[in-house]
Amino acid sequence: MAECSSLQFVSPYAFEAMQKVDVVRLAALSDPELRLLLPCLVRMALCAPADQSQSWAQDKKLILRLLSGVEAVNSIVALLSVDFHALEQDANKEQQLRLKLGGGSGESILVSQLQHGLTLEFEHSDSPRRLRLVLSELLAIMNKVSESNGEFFLKSSELFESPVYLEEAADVLCILQAELPSLLPIVDVAEALLHVKNGAWFLCLLVANVPDSFNEVCRGLIKNGERQDEESIGGRRRTEALRHLCKMNPSQALRVRGMVVEECHLPGLGVALTLDHTKNESSEDGVSDLVCFVSGLLLGTNAKVRTWFGTFIRNGQQRKRENISSVLWQMRRQLLLELMGILPTVRSTHIVEEADADPHVSVYSGLKEEHVVKASALLRLYCALMGIAGLKPTDEEAEQLLQLMTSRPPATPAGVRFVSLSFCMLLAFSTLVSTPEQEQLMVMWLSWMIKEEAYFESISGVSASFGEMLLLVAMYFHSNQLSAIIDLVCSTLGMKIVIKPSSLSRMKTIFTQEIFTEQVVTAHAVRVPVTGNLSANITGFLPIHCIYQLLRSRSFTKHKVSIKDWIYRQLCETTTPLHPQLLPLIDVYINSVLTPASKSNPEATNQPVTEQEILNVFQGLAGGENARVNQHYSITAQLLVLYYVLSYEEALLANTKTLAAMQRKPKSYSSALMDQIPIKYLIRQAQGLQQELGGLHSALLRLLATNYPHLCIVDDWICEEQITGTDALLRRMLLTNMAKNHSPKQLQDAFSVLSGNHTQLMQILEHLTLLSAGELIPYAEVLTSNMNQLLNAGVPRRVLQTVNKLWMVLNTVMPRRLWVMTVNALQPSVKIIRQQKYTQNDLMIDPLIVLRCDQRVHRCPPLMDITLHMLNGYLLASKAYLNSHLKETAEQDIRPPQNNTMGLEAPEVTREELKNALLAAQDSAAVQILLEICLPTDEEKGHSSNSHSLLKNIQSAAGPGPQIQELEEEEDSLLCNLREVQCLICCLLHQMYIADPNIVKLVHFQGYPCELLALTVAGIPSMHICLDFIPELIAQPELEKQIFAIQLLSYLCIQYALPKSLSVARLAINVMGTLLTVLTQSKRFAFFMPTLPCLVSFCQAFPPLYEDIMSLLIQIGQVCASDVATQTRDFDPIITRLQQLKEKPNEVSRLGKDPSYKSGAKDITSLDPDVQLCQCMENTIIEIINMSVSGV
């Protein structure tokens, strides 16, 4: 009855004062509290008392004095002045009339000629009529209740709902019931009040004014109540009303609860009263009243009560209305709180050896001695709730129950009883154990039971029944006598519950495979010989299956048995086709190495395979395929060990934060070890054995792409397809004995005489191209160490190309070692003399070392191709290195720095941003260096002053006369080394831009020489990305960036004449017009001199811009001319020509070709910036007009 929540009820203090007629207490009540009791007090003061004693006379005076200050007393006195005999006669007549005419008749003897609604009539009426109005309404409700046959209804009544007249209506109600008890029996009135709004409030006031009727009213309401009160609205209203009554008279609450159990009605009320009583009683260590009450209902001898309450539990679970307002939910929550209140706060799972244990002191901290009895009572109650009443525990309840059951009590008789109950409850309700962690907790507790049985028996003085029970249950499980186990459980718990034999299957597995045989199996497993030449062809149950299951259950770590050697021996004894259990075995082994079996014992892990053992597997691979004859280990073993190493490193990085939180840091394999493993060679071998290796090849590729992206470059895969395809077969056919006989020493000798004899080296290199990638490995060091000699002048191009080809073949099998050797070989001679050698780690930290090579490499295309390939690889490797470094140092995120105001997440975000910034700076620096390499040197400029790198500058259009000569010069320039290097660099930049478009934006915001714009726009297809951010670049405040943006845009418009380019070009013209009006003379000159020629490109790409551009140019000329005019009058010739250009533009074409015009222009050349700008503007206009005329 939520509608009563805002109303003031009679307090227990006031009710007790009324019961005892304690005038002193009544005088202490506040006015609002006293107002509720006025009907009884006024009748008490006015009516002749039966008690004629002097003390009552004094009390009566005090009551009169108390009432004298209350205004509402007058209205109650007026109510008592009415002729109740006549009122009763009229009421009886009305009852007879209603009985005769039917309950639906609207005629009334008590109330006639109602002009308005009941509320208004009540307000305007005098006391007699008010009595008649309330009596008529109350009789109507009582008649409807008697005719409803138990079906609940809610009657809408203005008199009982209007908050303004509630107190007056309550006064009338109390006076009527007191003066007409035969007409209005208080139990019937109470029943009727349940069907109106605010009924509970009226009922409490009525009983408070007749305190002696409390038990009568409660019994009547309970007797007429529903068997299941939570099922209907009527039942819930009845329960709520009775709860209010019991709150008003708490001393009778437990008696009312007894009535509930006696009648088997309103179970929710019984629970609610118990909850209210539990909250009021002082917190004690003993068993609470709630546990006792519910246990008594379910475990008592009365089957009717047990069935009745069990139905309440089942129905409560089936309802969707399982919320906080539900009594069942409140009961479960209170029980859970009590359970959690006695759980041990400190749990020690550390097993102390028996030799170290004190025979008189328990080695375990767990359940307190004063809580053991209460814990046992709670366990039995939950068993009854789940087994008899069908309660389905929530995840939280199950978790806390399991925590309680697996807690460790002191060695007392009560502790022995508790352990027995817990064990039987685990057997009866195995569903409480739902996760591997919970199962592990249970297994540890059962193991503790086995160890502590003798200790408990010696200390407690009783036979440790739980030890005997364990043995008995184990025997039953082994003999599969499940019914005997069920009988034992029911007998121990003291209740008959239904246990399905199928539910014991998990416990049977645990007992037979873990509790009693696990240690034995674990001890013997490591002594079982490995399966020789293990493959998928060997079927059946093998030792590997047993080891796998024991690893999953963490048996080896629990019993501190080393399994590493067995797993290593089995991995080495494998062959194709791959056995399907090997990969899961490696995964679960890695998990057992990194993840402790429990948080409380972080050192409980297996040992990883040592680095030396890993290296032994790969020994001899560096010598190429010929060395495999002497290898002891198969390719399957090598691939499995490689999978183990890569998976271990990945799992270590993935669990860094978790391990750091547990203050564990397992050792990572060193980078030196990883450098010695020929990863790429092994992957190539696996590629040819995909059918026999099952999922191993794809798993290795996944690990490689995640942790070694520089070994997964697309170009390398394409190159491998060419090397391992049909060409490889043809090469094997052409392979001669002479080619096989070339040794690395012969190759070194050929390099030594390279300056005087190219033929010998060329012959050996050509023969080496016929060898496979694996056979080339012995020649790698000689080939790379002599690369510096190839930079000398006079080395034939064919030698360089052949070396490049051999390098690419070696790159498919030993890329990382090859890259390090090559970078060191191509260092400038100064560094070589100093013997400064870089390592793999150095190059991953700073990939730009690759570009700090001998400057001659920049003009040697075959070696530059190799350099660019290494640069791309090390940029990818650097990203992977920094990502792994971030994960390795994740413990810094767990420990926030002091004075950190940004919260716990701040360090991680900051370090991630720093990493991204470093990578962006690294990539942009590489791009800038490569672009700088594309610039011609002074020597190259002098050699070919009129040539261009990739494309002729589109703005240097010449006449038909000298065009043939310039084309010949351009052809010569396109066949130079610079052009080839530019093509290679543009190809790499295109790949980088596509991989990360942010690099394009960063590089162009940094800027680079405008001489390279023609090269980059024409040579890098992805340069169209720049159209997206040119507006932002133009909006930068620096003039240099604005000039660079407009120049870049002019080339992009020619290369990509798209609608988007047109809109950006239009924006650029508008910006130029705006800047014209705001720039000073010096800045105007600096801005427009380099950007005016760009307008020619805009016109060429987009003719519709012609008018806007011509208008801009003339505006520039006018601004400059006006500035000049204020200083001198010597500028008239230019102003005149501007006017001519504006009036007769058709003559400009002829004017531009007139030699006299050009000479005239030279004559007026001036150092004045405005004059020079006007001349530049004039030339731009002429070029635009010439272009348009020639285009026509």
TrEMBL record:
UniProt subcellular location: Nucleus
UniProt organism field: Alligator sinensis
GO cellular component: integrator complex
The encoding gene: INTS2
Entry-linked InterPro entries: Int2_metazoa, INTS2
A Gene Ontology biological process term: snRNA 3'-end processing
Protein family per UniProt: Belongs to the Integrator subunit 2 family.
Keywords: Nucleus
Any Pfam family hit: INTS2
Source superkingdom: Eukaryota
Residues of the signal peptide: none
UniProt name for this protein: Integrator complex subunit 2
